[in-house]
Amino acid sequence: MALYVVQLRFDLADTDRRLEVRPAHRDYLVELKEAGKLVTAGPFPDQTGAVLIYDVADEAELRDILAKDPYTPANVYEIATLSEWQPLFPIN
């Protein structure tokens, strides 16, 4: 398994649309967390984006997960950063 950090950037002009889709997005994140695929996630206080940390087999699995996120077909974000991550300290 590998850890990946994804930083999303939100278009503030699409805030209303993003907020409409957010409950489904958050439900999806809960499913991923329960399945052990999502380590943590959360938006920035200014609502300009979010950071999500995934525990997946590889980038292909991560891209599949992102494609299934309700935010993706709604087109309410762009990926600012998607990088494999090697933490210095245990996450648990």
From TrEMBL:
UniProt-listed SUPFAM superfamilies: Dimeric alpha+beta barrel
InterPro entries: Dimeric_a/b-barrel, Sec-metab_biosynth-assoc, YCII
Origin: domain of life: Bacteria
Annotated YCII-related domain residues: 4-85
Signal peptide location: none
PANTHER family cross-referenced by the UniProt entry: PROTEIN YCII
The family this protein is said to belong to: Belongs to the YciI family.
Name of this chain's protein: YCII-related domain-containing protein
Species of origin: Kribbella rubisoli
